[in-house]
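[recover] target loaded
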């Protein structure tokens, strides 16, 4: 397989940097081709502005979506954006790796999404009719490819549990998994999440590293999160409301968009939605990748 890792951490010698090396080494050992977009090392420009659209006329009002569409269709997107789009088209699997900062991804990674997921490429594709509302949420340019998150957090796993003060980790990551990755067609694998990373000893790191190696070994076979396809009949068009009666008992919020009944594995068990949790020990710190939410 061809794997693209988009890496968003400012310190190469951080825990994230060590985990990146673990993932790349294991993937290459397995014979996969790997590319890494190290956003901080590349000096990635985060903000969308007029510089992204050199063909925009002087004095012409910048309308980001319209400008993105025009630039993509005309082939005038900037060189850095074009290079990342080519990597996405090349890759069979996309991995976004980042520390959880203020309950989300670092600004540099959000800026990568804002600029690279261009109109006509990642959104705004497909027909709009009374039967189909564009190619998105299970369809789209990147359909047939897989994606997953590798995330580090300073808080305890319990803090990110259904009754935890920070909210469930699957809910916090839903806007990324569903709204950024599933939207243009990726099959989204359950995230690999590491907790309590600011107090991690060598033994704890090795356990986490082995867990990440296992996830790299199962990239092609792991069951994706069973999100509902927008155009698969579960949603009313054009209101995009879930049809009554399809939700599971007590389901609400983000859980409504999981097809738990129709998305069971061959062994009859539900898909493994959620993280691959790891508890760091209380030994000497290896790296401080703590989230700003703590």
């Amino acid at each position: 397989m061809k794997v693209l890792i988009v890496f968003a951490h400012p310190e190469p010698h951080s825990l994230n940097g060590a985990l990146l090396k673990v993932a790349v080494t294991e993937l290459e050992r397995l014979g996969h081709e790997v590319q890494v977009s190290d956003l901080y090392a590349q000096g990635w420009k985060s903000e969308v502005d007029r510089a992204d659209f050199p063909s925009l006329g002087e004095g012409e009002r910048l309308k980001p979506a319209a400008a993105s569409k025009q630039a993509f269709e005309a082939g005038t997107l900037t060189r850095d954006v074009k290079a990342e789009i080519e990597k996405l088209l090349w890759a069979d699997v996309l991995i976004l790796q980042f520390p959880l900062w203020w309950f989300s991804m670092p600004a540099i990674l959000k800026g990568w999404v804002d600029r690279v997921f261009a109109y006509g490429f990642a959104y705004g594709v497909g027909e709009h009719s009374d039967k189909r509302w564009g190619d998105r949420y299970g369809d789209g340019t990147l359909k047939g490819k897989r994606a997953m998150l590798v995330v580090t957090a300073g808080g305890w796993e319990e803090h990110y549990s259904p009754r935890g003060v920070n909210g469930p980790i699957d809910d916090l990551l839903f806007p990324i998994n569903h709204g950024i990755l599933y939207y243009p067609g990726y099959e989204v694998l359950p995230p690999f999440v590491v907790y309590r990373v600011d107090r991690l000893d060598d033994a704890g790191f090795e356990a986490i590293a082995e867990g990440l190696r296992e996830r790299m070994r199962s990239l092609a076979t792991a069951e994706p999160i069973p999100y509902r396809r927008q155009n698969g009949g579960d949603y009313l068009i054009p209101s995009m409301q879930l049809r009554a009666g399809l939700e599971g008992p007590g389901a609400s919020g983000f859980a409504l968009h999981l097809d738990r009944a129709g998305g069971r594995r061959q062994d009859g068990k539900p898909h493994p939605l959620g993280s691959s949790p790891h508890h760091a020990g209380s030994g000497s710190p290896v790296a401080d990748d703590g989230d700003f939410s703590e």
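[recover] notes: Residues 174 and 254 are 7 Å apart (CA to CA).
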